[in-house]
Specification:
The chain contains 14 helices and 22 strands. It has a 6-stranded mixed sheet, with helices on both faces. The chain is α+β, with helices and mostly antiparallel strands and 442 residues long. The chain folds into 3 domains: 215 residues, HUPs (Rossmann fold, 3-Layer(aba) Sandwich); 74 residues, 2-Layer Sandwich (Uridine Diphospho-n-acetylenolpyruvylglucosamine Reductase, domain 3); 117 residues, Phenylalanyl-trna Synthetase, Chain B, domain 3 (Phenylalanyl-tRNA Synthetase, Chain B, domain 3).
Length: 442
Amino acid sequence: MNEVESFLNSLNIKKNDVLVVAVSYGPDSMFLLDLLKNKYTSNKIICAHVHHNHRKESDAEARLLKEYCVKNKLTFEFMKIKKYDNGNFSEEEARKKRYEFFDTLMTKYNSKYLFTAHHGDDLSETILMRIVRGANVSGYVGIRKESDRAGYKIIRPLLYLTKENIEKYCNMNKIPYAVDASNESSLYTRNRYRNVILKSLKEENKNVHKKFLQFSEELEEYDNYINKVVDKQYLKVVDKGVINISKISGLEDLIKRKIIERYLLEEYKDDIKSVNHNHVLKIKNVIDRNKPNCKVSMPLGKTIVKSYNSLYFDNEPMYNSYCYRFDGFIKLPNGYVIKRIDDLKDTSNFVAAFNSNDISLPLYVRNKKNGDKMSVLNLNGEKKIKDIFIDEKVCITRRDKYPVLVDSDDRILWLPGLKKSKYDKSKKGNYDIILEYYKEEN
């Protein structure tokens, strides 16, 4: 208990600070609530209870907890999860809804501290599970004594204690609590670690939880140091959601991986658990390879694109194949317009001129097809459209929907903005059709 007391003192909590405590009515959270109400007698304490709508005992536990709060002059806040998205209880969904409730309370009471009752056994089990499953350094830290969430800190002062310590104290001091029978079921992975693996380790060293805490704290120091380095490099490497490949390539592999992890977290946010270490390595390999253009399939239907010196998530909408008859004006899926005009404005690749006697009307605008070739102006023979895109460094995500102007015989006349065909007369010859390609203004 001395270690718990010292940790709480280090927080420098003021008398006017409101303390929110997550309480399930199990022995751990009831011990924590009792500890805080006795230590911080001048502070307003909020007991935050979530009814998970999963066990029949939950109604009675909520009622008993409310009675305890009334008796001890504590503010009781309650939320019941009415239904789950798939109709069945989900630990992940329950956690998400639970923290949404806590977020609301932290704002309502303008509180900076949310206390949770994670203890030393929880920490040991978490580290063991992540070692077996695989994680990164941040994951191997397990459960931190302090962590930041939007606008407040989550405090876990019981990591110095075991479940046994806590239950003994509750029984000696007649602190009421209820035990969730499912904690003994071997159907749950955590219970198997708790009741088999951790039990065996405690037979070797009854204070093994303190060794796990020491391991966690040391890893946290390393992780915090690395993150400071990554913070500086990230600002140099990532700009507006795009990774600059030339800038990240010269960094050490560890920093590369950490930047990629941070990048994925910013994209996936609450869905980050769908991404694993293999995805990080896959992206790193794409960065390290000499291939200038490629795509990487990612979880939840997302795609990462490498295009020359850039790597980014392709969030553009997908377009189906298209082919439009051109009747003087057309708005294209890429936001550009092709329009027939009266005067030749310039001879750039954004304007083309044709003689109707040389081509077959009507004209059409379609996207690229496999095997497309064009007789490029001032070039003997034909060139693949694919090779033109590569030469002109057209982003890989733009190629499949890039507009191609063809005549009725499907001869490629123009790649607007890129290349003209031998049929173009803008610089030499007679013409009676002038087309302009431009970005439509909003």
